[in-house]
């Protein structure tokens, strides 16, 4: 049970004065809360002996009111500080998770599903919040309050009666410990089922158009219902175990009441204690119901929190496959792929095989080849997305392993095949490449990407909302916004990874011409299936099954009689239309 608290000792150590203050205020409040029972017992004894007077009654009432008000103020103070601590730790862990998500390489996201990561950042984090708020509250309040009450029962009434009345408590602790371990295991299963369901929801939402076009709504509903039922079964297993805590607490409490009434009557007959003492003792026993019940909840809440924190820590403790221990910077963008071979972490075959290319700063490299030939894999080596490949990749005479990821990527403008856009305005998506860009730089990026004519047709121009993942835009518009986003930073190395596939031939020519004119002294790499986009390139390579099978200029490859020549003839004769 206390494993959860041990895992968070770093936080409690950093905020020790907050929790010391909470403990001190709580002890004071607990002492105040046992005073009313004493006042009631004394009042009953005064009445039974005939010593009560009007003045004495008013003194008891005023003392009672003062104690209640002070208890209320103290209770508000310590609970406010405790819940504030829970919100703080939730915020810290959430930021740690976000930092981890932002820093991890693609291999991490290939191994972990998006829905599962979302579940850890939401549902699991909510369980951690509950444990650090109500769990710690219950732990501190229940233990200190119980200790205060037991001390008051023994000192002010009878240690003997207290001992016998509390005999059932160890049995409760034993049973609840076993239940807590079962809840921990069941909660892990429940959270994993929630992650699977979350993944399913994401797939349904993202693929809703495809589902409708194939009329698969009923099958998707049936599949999702099965996942929902599975999650419900696991969740209800946790709730069934949880529901056992309260009845157990009530049974133990009733046993304590029976002992207190029976043995208390014997002690009263002997003259050891008074009637008022019996009333006070039973009030204390009644007050013990909350801490005893709270201890039951404590096992439950902390076990759930521990299960969720374990899942979160598993993500936080994951080491990135790509080491970022380089600190060299580059001046020129001369690059050399020297016999580079690479295999994806989850792949069973070599995805790049002995690739060698030499590209001088300011040159343009065109990359062509069939789908799945390794074109994008080659590009990802430059971006340091995956662990260092075999062979050498050198930029400005320095091995890429010696270059920091942040510094390297700051030199690169990358337009991927996915054309990822955020649910913001067109302008905000373009400025993402360079938030501090001037209006002139913004307009120039729009012109170079041939987006200006489309902006005139958009309802609000640059202020048009693109919708989630650019759903409100056409494929060509998304591609040109992505290109503008890269061009606005005027990168030393521009990489277009099949970034012109959704634009027409006329627009493609305009964009390529703009890039050639504006980037005469800067390196450009263009990956494409349309050979018209790379005919101007200084070097063109054709890839097949991870290898370079052809290399040269457009003229050289046109005369080679290979795949490039065949494709060029095909396009020239209009075969692609």
From TrEMBL:
Any one cellular-component term (Gene Ontology): plasma membrane
Pfam families hit by this protein: ABC_membrane, ABC_tran
SMART domains on file: AAA (SM00382)
Domain ABC transmembrane type-1: 22-304
CDD domains: ABC_6TM_TmrB_like
Keywords: ATP-binding, Cell membrane, Membrane, Nucleotide-binding, Transmembrane, Transmembrane helix, Transport
Alphabetical list of PROSITE patterns matching this protein: ABC_TM1F (PS50929), ABC_TRANSPORTER_1 (PS00211), ABC_TRANSPORTER_2 (PS50893)
Locations listed in the record: Cell membrane
Name of the protein in its database record: Multidrug ABC transporter ATP-binding protein
